[in-house]
From TrEMBL:
Keywords, alphabetical: Acyltransferase, Transferase
An annotated GO BP: secondary metabolite biosynthetic process
Hydrolase found in the keyword field: no
InterPro entries, per database record: ACP_syn_III_C (IPR013747), Thiolase-like (IPR016039)
Taxonomy, superkingdom: Bacteria
Domain Beta-ketoacyl-[acyl-carrier-protein] synthase III C-terminal: 254-344
Entry GO MF terms: 3-oxoacyl-[acyl-carrier-protein] synthase activity
The name this protein goes by in its record: 3-oxoacyl-ACP synthase
Length: 344
């Protein structure tokens, strides 16, 4: 089914990853004093960028690869969209413009998305809006990047995922047959919007206390427990609803696209731990092989970059072929549940 408002597909892929790090006790002890807890998450590898490699540099490498893969030059790019899912390099600064400068796309429009890892998926819906409202657009560069700021966040204490450094990029081309966008849906539970925030460095608290360190800051999940400290029944209800809402948002996307959930070939979830993938497979009623669990274990959680890196791997390996229906799903800050459907 072709969307009547925005008809576009993926004409090229690119990605750039930090240096591979094995998930083993001697590596993990730099970040946590209980490596066994992290080992239980089931990751094999994560990516850590060198200290002098920024999010913009990772993004530019991925962008150039996608432009080349699509057979284009920077002059052919009509719009640059950047989804940035960690702390930006600077305050009062437009990272999307910095990316455009880095890759040589000048005097063209650009857009910056900063809604955490969700923006690497719902950003495709934003692009649909651009195509729908501006018939002159032909090729949009969409880049999603996660570069952990280790001053602000401990990559192994944000939640029950190892946070990884990487960027993914795609060229989204009007009328392209491969990787067609079908629908994007998201909804939020704003009552818990403060969970997983970085408390220091922003307008409310620009400077951290002298004794504060990301190495010892509370795990984001501790904020969840604290929220429900006097309401254990409420916590149980919320936990039960977490994955069920993924099914709900996927069903909403399927309804918009006019497809059946049973026709989805692959469920690409954010690169969560293996236990979460088992739970997701159960709630969707599919074998875990129908999810992206195996790829997630090789990369760690690359924030907004997860889904497009995984989609590229599956299409290049031949596991996904033209005609296959793919759901890109996840849960992000906000709290947001989201799904984008793509027809390979």
């Amino acid at each position: 089914m072709t969307n009547q408002f925005a008809d576009f597909g993926i004409a090229g892929f690119g990605h750039s990853l930090g240096v591979d790090q094995k998930v083993e006790a001697e590596v993990l002890t730099e970040f946590v004093d209980d490596p066994e807890r992290v080992l239980q998450w089931g990751y094999h590898t994560f990516h850590r960028a060198p200290a002098d490699v920024t999010a913009i540099e990772l993004s530019a490498r991925a962008a150039r690869d996608a432009i080349e893969d699509a057979g284009l030059t920077a002059d052919d790019v009509d719009y640059v969209v950047l989804a940035l899912s960690d702390v930006p390099g600077y305050l009062n600064w437009d990272a999307s413009s910095a990316l455009a400068r880095e890759i040589g796309v000048r005097l063209k429009p650009n857009l910056l998305l900063m809604e955490g890892c969700v923006s690497g998926v719902t950003g495709l819906g934003n692009v649909a809006g651009l195509f729908a409202t501006d018939p002159s657009l032909q090729n949009i560069l969409f880049v999603a990047v996660n570069r952990v700021s280790e001053y602000h966040r401990n990559r192994m204490r944000v939640n029950n995922s190892i946070h990884s450094d990487g960027a993914s990029a795609v060229i989204l081309r009007r009328g392209h047959e491969f990787g067609r966008w079908l629908a994007t849906v998201q909804f939020t539970d704003p009552d818990v919007s403060d969970w997983f925030r970085t408390d220091f460095g922003g307008e409310v608290a620009p400077v951290a206390p002298a004794d504060w360190s990301s190495q010892t800051q509370a795990n984001g999940l501790e904020a969840v427990v604290d929220h429900f400290r006097t309401d254990p029944k409420g916590l149980q209800t919320f936990v039960t609803a977490l994955n069920q809402r993924l099914v709900e948002v996927t069903d909403q996307a399927c309804a918009k696209a006019g497809v059946e959930r049973s026709s989805i070939k692959k469920i690409i979830h954010l690169n969560d731990n293996q236990g979460s993938f088992e739970e997701i497979a159960e709630v969707f009623g599919v074998p875990i092989s129908s999810t992206s669990a195996e790829v997630a274990a090789q990369h760690g959680h690359m924030g907004a970059a997860d889904h497009l890196v995984t989609l590229a791997e599956y299409t290049r390996s031949g596991e996904l072929v033209p005609g296959d229906l793919v759901a890109l799903i996840g849960i992000s800050i906000g709290m947001r549940w989201y799904c984008t459907l793509v027809r390979i």
